């Protein structure tokens, strides 16, 4: 296909501005304004998980009690900040290159430049300083993603006040960092920062008098002696991790926050943040989230702004097709078809991923893309967003699918059905105990009348992998009556879910030996 010709004659042609998915069988072009792979590969999931892989190991090696109970002795550990940063960067490059090669192998045209919709089925794209090119396509999928959202009053300098885009480069490990926002990004980075700073804290049981000299050493001798003294969370809502099931958030606070060098301020907004300069620290002004009154000013070495992400949809030419964004998000229906200012579907135009604001997760973007391709290929498909799992890759991990308990109870009240909850502890799982990783809980919310799973929430070892049995059950509509009979290998962590399924009391279900729910 000659992309510069301005008209493409193929019946099945899809232009995907900056998409993340591949579709064999359709003639496909992708327009990318920056680097292939988008946020996930270059500034998101991939490099962050590389840093978290390091923090997980550091945390384990430093946990003397844990090591001793396994009979292991670790005499010394350390890390090289630049080598850790290189691991994250190299992984992103590798995945980016794999992705580019697969797209080329499948015959996808990769076009470089910023894309703009200029009319129905028409996209113009180009790089600054070069003549623009125009192409047409039968179907267009917008997948322009998101960028870090920085609230007004916060000044980013990229060195002492920064977003995840900068933090992932791990150019420094500050002594004392404030993390504004306790969502996914905040939590994952708190895991990284506290793990990388814990060495000195555990090996030199610091007395106050020694602290200043150690901090001085850390600056003099570089990466091996860098000290993290503390992480401070600043969260606008009244509890940390407000998006999680409240019971899981409470336990997560006990396991991931209270046992670490972390303090927090909830119910406050960071209204103004000034980067460090002229020997002065970063200044964070906190106001009460409700009264807006000034509460206090924090002085820290650095601040990570993790206050959510904003859709990247400006300059896309949506006005040319009568589409108006809602807080920047592109409105779509349940089939990801873009709707115009009058609420009508714009034919052959779809929007997937962060730009539509339904669920800001890489696999949600992918699943929405696959759903769109099913439709383009003549097979109607609606994605059940309640079956999409999410995971936070802290140590231990947190994962979830479906409704939280308050959401399920609200739905039950509105629709007039009953809700039941079962829980099990990782302490009851042989494999978790063999690993000496009994800190954890799994919780399932379900309908006792039908055996339908409404939500599952897990905090514990490999929670991110464990959630899929539940998410697939929700996606496929498998009922607890059937799941109770499924066999799980012993001893495996998967038995945590087996416990939940067997513990559920389904009114119409077959009778089985039912374990009483175990308290966390
Ligand atoms: C630190 C961090 C960690 C994360 N970890 C996870 C995780 O572990 N698991 C998970 O599921 N999700 C994670 N996410 C979220 C995940 O990265 C996003 O949900 C996902 O990348 C969204 O994909 P997308 O295709 O919608 O957009 P993006 O990945 O943002 O891609 C959009 C692309 O569009 C390009 N673009 C934008 N406008 C134009 C235009 N007009 N023309 C041409 N190109 C354009 C951009 O350059 C970009 O390459 C993380 C995010 C962050 C920030
Ligand atoms: N493991 C993963 O899947 C993963 C990892 C990282 C990011 N992500 C995705 O990236 C997106 C962005 O993550 P995030 O952590 O930035 O957003 P988030 O929405 O998860 O959390 C942002 C938090 O910041 C708080 N906040 C907002 N403004 C504030 C202010 N001025 N002062 C104090 N607190 C404030 C909010 O109350 C909220 O708790 C998420 O939607 C998530 O889906 C996913």
Short overview:
With 520 residues, the protein is an alpha/beta fold. The chain has 15 helices and 24 strands.
Please explain how this structure is put together.
The protein is of the alpha/beta class and 520 residues long. 31% of the residues lie in helices and 23% in strands. Strands 3-2-1-7-19-18 form a 6-stranded mixed beta sheet, with helices on one face. Helix 2 runs antiparallel to helix 4. The chain starts with 12 loop residues before the first strand and ends in a 17-residue tail after the last helix. The chain binds flavin-adenine dinucleotide and nicotinamide-adenine-dinucleotide. Flavin-adenine dinucleotide binds next to strand 2, helix 1, helix 2, strand 4 and helix 9.
List ligands, each type once: flavin-adenine dinucleotide, nicotinamide-adenine-dinucleotide
Which secondary-structure class do the elements indicate? alpha/beta
Query: In terms of per-residue confidence, which ranges show pLDDT below 50 for 5 or more consecutive residues?
Result: 1-12, 18-22, 198-229, 509-520
- Rg is 25 Å
Strand order of the largest sheet: 3-2-1-7-19-18
- What is the overall silhouette? globular
**Given the structure, what is the number of helices?**
15
Estimate the mean pLDDT confidence: 88
The end-to-end span amounts to 60 Å
What oligomerization state is this entry in? single chain
Percent strand equals 15-25%
> Approximately how much helix is present in the residues?
25-40%
Tally of DSSP β-strands: 24
Q: Report the sheet with the most strands, covering strand number, pairing sense and barrel closure.
A: 6 strands, mixed
Protein name: Dihydrolipoyl dehydrogenase
Binding site for FAD: 49, 115, 144-146, 354, 360-363
Cofactor: FAD
Binding site for NAD(+): 181-188, 235, 308
């Amino acid at each position: 296909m000659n992309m510069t010709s301005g008209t493409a004659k193929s019946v099945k042609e899809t232009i995907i501005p900056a998409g993340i998915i591949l579709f064999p069988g359709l003639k496909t072009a992708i327009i990318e304004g920056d680097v292939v792979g988008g946020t996930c590969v270059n500034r998101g999931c991939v490099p962050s998980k590389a840093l978290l892989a390091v923090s997980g190991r550091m945390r384990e090696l430093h946990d003397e009690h844990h090591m001793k109970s396994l009979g292991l002795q670790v005499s010394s550990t350390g890390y090289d900040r630049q080598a850790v940063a290189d691991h994250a960067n190299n992984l992103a490059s590798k995945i980016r290159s794999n992705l580019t090669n697969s797209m080329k192998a499948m015959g996808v045209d990769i076009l470089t430049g910023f894309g703009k919709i200029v009319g129905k089925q028409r996209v113009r794209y180009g790089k600054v300083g070069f003549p623009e090119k125009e192409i047409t396509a039968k179907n267009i999928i917008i997948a322009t993603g998101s960028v870090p959202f920085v609230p007004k009053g916060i000044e980013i300098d990229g060195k002492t006040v920064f977003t995840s885009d900068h933090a992932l480069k791990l150019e420094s490990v500050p002594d004392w960092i404030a993390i504004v926002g306790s969502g996914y990004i905040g939590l994952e980075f708190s895991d990284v920062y506290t793990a990388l700073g814990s060495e000195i804290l555990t090996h030199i049981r610091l007395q106050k008098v020694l602290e200043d000299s150690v901090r001085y050493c850390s600056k003099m001798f570089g990466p091996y002696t860098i000290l993290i003294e503390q992480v401070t969370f600043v969260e606008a809502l009244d509890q940390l991790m407000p998006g999680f099931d409240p019971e899981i958030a409470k336990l997560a606070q006990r396991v991931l926050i209270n046992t670490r060098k972390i303090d927090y301020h909830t119910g406050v907004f960071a209204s103004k943040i000034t980067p460090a300069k002229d020997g002065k620290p970063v200044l964070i002004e906190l106001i009460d989230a409700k009264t807006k009154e000034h509460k206090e000013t924090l002085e820290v070495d650095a601040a990570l702004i993790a206050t959510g992400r904003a859709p990247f949809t400006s300059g896309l030419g949506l006005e040319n097709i009568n589409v108006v964004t809602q807080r920047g998000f592109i409105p779509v229906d349940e089939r990801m078809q873009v709707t115009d200012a009058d609420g009508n579907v714009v034919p052959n135009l779809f929007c997937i991923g962060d730009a539509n604001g339904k669920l800001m997760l890489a696999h949600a973007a992918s699943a929405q893309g696959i759903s769109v391709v099913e439709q383009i290929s003549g097979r109607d498909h609606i994605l059940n967003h309640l079956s999409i799992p999410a995971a936070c890759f802290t140590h231990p991990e947190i994962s979830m699918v479906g409704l939280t308990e308050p959401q399920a109870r609200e739905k039950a009240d509105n629709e007039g059905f009953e809700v039941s909850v079962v829980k099990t502890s990782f302490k009851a799982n042989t494999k978790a105990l063999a690993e000496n990783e009994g800190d954890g809980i799994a919780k399932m919310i379900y309908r006792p009348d039908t055996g339908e799973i409404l939500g599952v929430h897990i905090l514990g070892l490999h929670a991110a992998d464990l959630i899929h049995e539940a998410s697939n059950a929700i996606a496929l509509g498998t009922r607890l009556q059937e799941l109770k009979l499924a066999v799980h290998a012993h001893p495996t962590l998967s038995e945590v879910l087996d416990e939940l399924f067997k513990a559920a009391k389904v009114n119409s279900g077959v009778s089985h030996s039912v374990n009483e729910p175990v308290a966390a």
